[in-house]
Amino acid sequence: MPSTQQPTAPQPTTGQYGVFGHVAPGFEAVREEFLRNFTERDEQGAALAVTLGGELVVDLWGGPADPAAGRAWDGDTVQLIFSGSKGVLATALLVLVDRGVVELDKPVAHYWPEFAAKGKAGITVREVVTFTARMPAVAAPLSQDDLGDPEAMAKLLADQPQESDPRAEGILYGPWATGWIIAEVIRRADGRRLDRFFAEEVGRPLGVDVSFGLAPEQEDRVARTEYGKGFREQFSGYFTSDDPLTQRIWQNPVPFPEDSGIWNSPARRFSLIPAANVYGSARGFAKLYGILAADASRPAEDAPVLLSRRLLDEARAPRVSKVDQLIDVPMVYGGGGYRLRTNPRPTVDGDSFGHDGAGGSANQAWPRAAAGVSYVMNRLIALGPDDKRASSLVKAVAAAMENLGLGGAR
């Protein structure tokens, strides 16, 4: 599908920076919705990319990547996606599952014997990646500086028992712990740390601009993260609660300290925090999820690019559908750790999988259209009615594809 290359006209709210990029014919309304985020929805800097059958049909960016430095966003700017990292983490794990190196229903302790301590011998890899292992957090007191030492965090998790609070029944989400456990399983099974494994087995071979943590030579490409309207306030109940379970998960340490600058520090950017500090460009995330979408929709007997159709059918089939009793949020996870729609429907995006990220990012695979969709931004805004940026863009992309007759219901 050919694309139009002319830049989008700058809008007043982006000041000196402007909004640029291109869209393929039929996706013009997506460009208008992207502009509307800047004029109506408090956008600062952002990018949107969509791949369709491997081709980049939407490639838009705008605003400042780093307002303090006066650096504009460009098509290669990379952005931190917070819990969107969990979808990339699941992909890394599934590479080893597809190769027969790891089995989802084997105990974690099969690969990491020390994890069996304190009655945890039966916890499976699948339970960890679907947040049903009753291991939502490290129990020992942690500081912000501790988060960047994944091996030390893994040891602490191995040395503690499962959560006994009855609210852990079904599903109990936590921001950090799942990443440390899965990263250690990968390290024990393969011999490489997660960041190196992903770079050598996925990022570089497939030309995917996505990484766990950031290399120092990439720092001039990264957008500066800041808290926006209502973002931190939405967590205030969790960050100040005197409930012991809430304190263990959401205050040890708090995921979003008062000073957002911690996320822009070299110490944080260059470290490995498996469940929370994946970086990438919108093009990179769209390419990765486009590959997964294509693999999920190709005939089972065909050779995949990254993961087999058989495994992806299992990984994206609903496995856990529960309301997290602590944070009162409905969650649906596939059998391989991808987060799924809570209301699947027979539309082009109705069977999407991936993982959302705090503050508004959206990175998804759409198998019905063999499409990858990525929206990333550097201003974090509260979920719900305060932030319509990602949902408006996703709806516009889906409508454009359906108008073009792409990816009908199955």
Mean pLDDT: 94
Largest sheet: 7 strands, antiparallel
Count the E strands.
16
Measured between the Cα atoms of the first and last residue, the distance is 23 Å
Helix content: 25-40%
Low-pLDDT runs = 1-13
Q: Radius of gyration, Cα only, in angstroms?
A: 20 Å
Summarize the helix and strand pattern as letters: EHEEEEEHHHHHHEEHHHEHHEEEEEEEH
Strand order of the largest sheet: 1-3-2-15-14-13-12
Number of helices: 13
Oligomer: single chain
Give the amount of beta strand, in percent.
15-25%
**Helices and strands: which structural class?**
alpha+beta
Shape: globular
Describe the protein's architecture and organization.
It is a single chain. This protein has helices spanning 28-40, 85-98, 108-111, 125-129, 150-158, 177-190, 194-206, 236-240, 244-250, 266-269, 282-297, 309-315, 389-403; strands spanning 19-23, 46-52, 55-62, 64-66, 71-72, 79-80, 210-212, 226-227, 278-280, 318-324, 329-334, 339-340, 353-354, 362-366, 371-377, 379-380. It has a seven-stranded antiparallel sheet with strand order 1-3-2-15-14-13-12. It is 31% helix and 16% strand. The radius of gyration is 20 Å and the shape is globular. The two termini are 23 Å apart. It is built from 13 helices and 16 strands. It has 410 residues and is an alpha+beta fold. Residues 1-13 have low confidence and may be disordered.
Structure, briefly:
The chain is α+β, with helices and mostly antiparallel strands and 410 residues long. Helix content is 31%, strand content 16%. The longest helix has 16 residues, at 282-297.
